[in-house]
TrEMBL record:
Gene name for this UniProt entry: murB
Cell location: Cytoplasm
Pathway(s) this gene product operates in, as recorded in its UniProt entry: Cell wall biogenesis; peptidoglycan biosynthesis
Protein purpose: Cell wall formation.
Enzyme Commission number, as recorded: 1.3.1.98
Transmembrane segments: none
Organism from which the protein derives: Uliginosibacterium paludis
Name used for this protein in its record: UDP-N-acetylenolpyruvoylglucosamine reductase
Residues of the active site: R166, S240 (proton donor), E336
Lineage of producing organism: Bacteria, Pseudomonadati, Pseudomonadota, Betaproteobacteria, Rhodocyclales
Length: 340
C-alpha cells in the first residue's frame, strides 16, 4: 500500500503538552513495508523524518519542515514460549497501556508496574520507559526496525539497543534513523510481584491486599498515578520534565551535610540518583508559573501548560528552573522529553 502525504497538518492534538505545531508533510504508516518503500524512493533525502507515536514525550516547535511519520502499525500476539517465559510481540502503533492490560488479561504478567504510561509500544524502548521499580528493557527480548537510510529491515537485541536510564540508541545515533515497527517481550512464567516501592506497598495495604495478583498491582499503580499525575486530557504535560540526576557519592555526601533530608538511591556503581522533583520543590518552583507554563502543584517534576504555551515558553521556564537548582545544589537537571 503506497503512502499518502498530507500538507500543513496541525499537530496540536498529537502532542500531550498541547504545543502548537504545523507539520509541512505528514503521513500515517500502517505497515513496515511502507517505510522501506519511502526510504528506497529517497523521500527523506539527507534529513531525518520525525517519527511520531502518541506525542507524550515531545516538545514540538511551531513548525516542522521535516517529514512527520505517525506510526500506526497494529497487531499483538503470543509468538512462543519456553519453560520460563512467554514471548509476546506487539506492533509499534499499539497503545502501551492497552497492551499491558491485554497481557494481564491473557495471563502473561510482567509489565504491570508500567501500567498507565501514555504513548505507544514503539516509543517505549526509545527512552526505556520505567516506573515503580521496573524498566521496559528488563522485559524486552528484541525489536524490529526499518533503517530509514536504506529501507532495510533490522532486528535488534537487548545489547544493540544500548539501554540506559531513560535512554537508548534511539535517542542518539538511532534517532530519526531507525523506525521501530514491533517489539517482542519476554514475560516470566514464574511471576513475583515487584512492590518494593513504598507507594505501591502502601496502596496495596490500604486495599487490604496481602498476596497481590498481577492485576492487583496494576490497579494499585493506576490508582496512584491518577492521584499524582495531571491528566493530559485536562492539562497539557509530558510527564516527568527532568531526569532524576545521578551524582557521584562525594557530591552526594557534601549535599547530605547541607541538606540532611535530601532523598537519594544508591546505584550499582556507587553513584547516587537524586529526586529531581525534590530539588525543584526546594528551589521554590512547586506550583509556581512563569508565563503560561508552571511546575505542577501536585508533583514539582511535571511541567504543565496552563493554556496557550509555545515551546519558547517551555524552554524559558526549563532554563530558569535549571539555573535555580544549579545555584542551590550545584546539580544540573537534564530535560527528559525529546525536542525535535
Ligand atoms: C502523564 C504522563 C506520565 C508519564 N509517565 C511516564 C513514566 O512513568 N515513565 C516513563 O518512562 N515515561 C513516562 N511518560 C513519558 C511518555 O509517556 C513515554 O516516554 C512514552 O514512551 C512516549 O510514547 P509516545 O508514543 O507518546 O512517544 P512520542 O512522544 O510520540 O515520541 C517520543 C520519542 O520517541 C520517538 N519515537 C516514537 N515512536 C517511535 C518509533 N516507533 N520508532 C522510533 N522512534 C519512535 C519519537 O521520535 C520521539 O523521539 C509520561 C508522560 C505523560 C504525559
Amino acid at each position: 500500500m503506497s503512502v499518502t502525504f498530507q500538507q500543513d497538518v496541525p499537530l496540536d492534538r498529537y502532542n500531550t503538552f498541547g504545543l502548537p505545531c504545523v507539520a509541512r508533510r505528514y503521513a500515517e504508516i500502517i505497515t513496515p513495508a511502507q517505510l522501506s518503500e519511502l526510504a528506497r524512493a529517497g523521500e527523506f533525502g539527507s534529513r531525518s523524518p520525525l517519527i511520531l507515536g502518541g506525542g507524550s514525550n515531545l516538545l514540538l516547535p511551531a513548525e516542522l519542515d521535516d517529514i512527520v511519520l505517525k506510526i500506526s502499525i497494529r497487531g499483538r500476539e503470543l509468538i512462543g514460549s519456553d519453560d520460563d517465559h512467554h514471548f509476546v510481540r506487539a506492533g509499534a502503533g499499539e497503545n502501551w497501556h492497552d497492551f499491558v492490560r491485554w497481557t494481564l488479561d491473557m495471563g502473561w504478567p510482567g509489565l504491570e508496574n508500567l501500567s498507565l504510561i501514555p504513548g505507544t509500544v514503539g516509543a517505549a524502548p526509545v527512552q526505556n520507559i520505567g516506573a515503580y521499580g521496573l524498566e521496559m528493557c528488563e522485559r524486552m527480548l528484541m525489536l524490529e526496525t526499518v533503517d530509514l537510510r536504506s529501507g532495510a529491515r533490522v532486528t535488534m537485541d537487548f545489547d544493540a539497543c544500548r539501554f540506559g536510564y531513560r535512554d537508548s540508541l534511539f535517542k542518539h545515533e538511532g534517532a530519526g534513523r531507525f523506525a521501530i515497527t514491533a517489539v517482542t517481550f519476554r514475560l516470566p512464567k514464574r511471576w513475583t510481584p515487584l512492590t518494593r516501592y513504598l507507594d505501591v506497598a502502601k496502596e496495596l495495604a490500604a486495599r487490604g491486599i496481602i498476596d497481590p495478583t498481577p492485576l492487583d498491582v496494576s490497579d494499585a499503580i493506576i490508582a496512584i498515578r491518577l492521584r499524582k499525575l495531571p491528566d493530559p486530557e485536562k492539562i497539557g504535560n509530558a510527564g516527568s520534565f527532568f531526569k532524576n540526576p545521578v551524582v557521584s557519592a562525594s557530591l552526594h555526601d557534601a549535599l547530605l551535610a547541607r541538606f540532611p533530608a535530601i532523598p537519594a538511591h544508591r546505584q550499582f556503581d556507587g553513584s547516587m540518583k537524586l529526586a529531581a522533583g525534590w530539588l525543584i520543590e526546594q528551589a521554590g518552583w512547586k506550583g509556581r508559573d512563569l508565563g503560561p507554563v508552571g511546575m505542577f502543584e501536585g508533583q514539582a517534576l511535571v511541567m504543565v501548560n496552563r493554556g496557550g504555551a509555545t515551546r519558547l515558553d517551555v524552554q524559558k521556564l526549563a532554563e530558569t528552573v535549571q539555573a535555580d537548582v544549579l545555584d542551590k545544589f550545584g546539580v544540573r537537571l537534564e530535560i527528559e522529553p525529546v525536542q525535535p
